[in-house]
Amino acid sequence: MRGSTDEELLALIGRRDELALRELYRRHAPHLRAMAKRMTPEEGEADQCLQDTFVMAWKAAPSFDHSKASVRTWIVTVAHRLMINRLGERRVVGGQLNDPERKPAASPPAADPAGRLYVGDALETLEPDSRRLLELAIFGGHSHGELARLTGRPLASITTTLSQALSHLREIVTGGRA
Amino acid sequence: MIIEENVLVDYALGTLASGQVPEVERFLAADPAAAARVRRLQDLMAEYVLQLPAEALSEGEEDALVERLRTGSDPPLVQGRRRASRRSQPWVALGLAAALGVAAWLAFGPLITSDRLDRITTGYIEQPGSVVLSLVDSSGEELGTLVRLADGRLFVAFERLPTEGAYQLWEVREGRPRSLAAGRRRSFLTEPVERGAIFEVTVEPLAGSPQPTTEPLVTAPL
């Protein structure tokens, strides 16, 4: 079971395999919980989001369309949007951001022997402002328009900054591959 | 149709207002290159999340998940499951139902298919204070969308008409149903309904019924 891909596990879950469900949960839940905890301080909400995500996986497994999304992308997207739904009106809109502490960006991390570069390290190479905006978008659930209102910056500036931040991440993660 | 890049990024990151989603999805269905860009962004976000430092899971959560699937409203793990009792139709909790709509967004297509009803529904969704709930039956099939407006009125849009008869909407308190609306049509706007009630939909004769005569197609807490 541990050597199975996410797609293989989901196929097994589609046949109601409890062990496959447990393996998929153990594999991804710790990171999904980390995401949820960045979006809400309430443990119960994070745990409920996790449960609902894997109940979703259970329901969707028999008819999941692998051509539309990978299992890992799908499961993260579901968990993320569940949390955004929960955040709902509690997301801060219209408040004022503190100016990010100005620290120089780190140098791009060196590749590990396997040639992988971790996205988490890659964020350290972003300018603090770019990193803050990206984190507000992902963990705060804020759209471009909301970020513009929060920061007092023009929408075009937010669009440019987020676009550059995402491009930078993509370059680091893919090593420049498309 | 032109969709600006920042709107596509909002969609990919899950921050797009729900009322804008149907239009974006129609655009993506017609523009494979844009759909591929959105998918790459979603893959990137997933890669980021799955490399966050792992958080310790709460004790018992894994077993609680399995137990929920074994004994709760979701299809059970064991082979040869019993059919749900006639009255114990599965609950569709607000968050989970919304997430079933989320799954539809990503993997199965848009929630609402009729352009005109889309526009009407989107109009209600975009009203300040509205809350959207996907209506899903016990087999996981989407029935439609419920929008609870800020003043408590419910707007309900169904994917399709029933095979025969009419939809009837109910507010249930302490086990006592009260009819909200009935008719052989795909959309309804009710009077305000106070929180704490249970919302149910049944199929009844064309003229409606003083009491539900069939099992609820969907049950949801308001």
E-strand count of chain A: 0
What is the CA-CA span between the terminal residues of chain A? 31 Å
Largest sheet of chain B: 4 strands, antiparallel
Note the run of SSEs of chain B as H and E. HHHHHHEEEEEEEE
* Spatial gap, N to C terminus of chain B: 37 Å
**Morphology of chain B:** globular
**What integer is the average pLDDT of chain B?**
76
Write the layout of secondary structure elements.
The complex is a heterodimer of chains A (178) and B (222).
Chain A: H1 6-14, H2 18-39, H3 43-60, H4 71-87, H5 119-124, H6 128-140, H7 144-151, H8 155-174
Helix pairs in contact in A: 1-2, 2-3, 2-4, 3-4, 6-8, 7-8
Chain B: H1 5-13, H2 21-30, H3 32-49, H4 61-71, H5 94-108, H6 115-125, E1 131-136, E2 142-148, E3 154-158, E4 166-173, E5 176-183, E6 187-189, E7 198-204, E8 218-221
Antiparallel strand pairs in B: 1-2, 2-3, 3-6, 4-5, 4-7, 7-8
Helix pairs in contact in B: 1-3, 2-3
Outline:
The complex is a heterodimer of chains A (178) and B (222). Chain A has 178 residues and is mainly alpha-helical.
Question: Any overview of this molecule?
Answer:
The complex is a heterodimer of chains A (178) and B (222). Chain A is mainly alpha-helical. Helices cover 63% and strands 0% of the residues of chain A. Chain A has 8 helices and no strands. In chain A, α1 (6-14) crosses α2 (18-39), α3 (43-60) packs across α4 and α6 crosses α8 (155-174). Mean pLDDT of chain A is 78; it is low at 92-118. Chain B has 222 residues and is α+β, with helices and mostly antiparallel strands. In chain B, 33% of the residues lie in helices and 22% in strands. Chain B has 6 helices and 8 strands. Chain B has helices spanning 5-13, 21-30, 32-49, 61-71, 94-108, 115-125, and strands at 131-136, 142-148, 154-158, 166-173, 176-183, 187-189, 198-204, 218-221. A 4-stranded antiparallel β-sheet of chain B has the order 1-2-3-6. A 4-stranded antiparallel β-sheet of chain B has the order 5-4-7-8, with no helix packed on it. The longest helix of chain B is centred in the N-terminal third of the chain and has 18 residues, at 32-49. Chain B is globular and about 55 Å long. Mean pLDDT of chain B is 76; it is low at 78-113. At the A-B interface, α2, α3, α4, α5 and α8 of A face α1, α3, α4 and α5 of B.
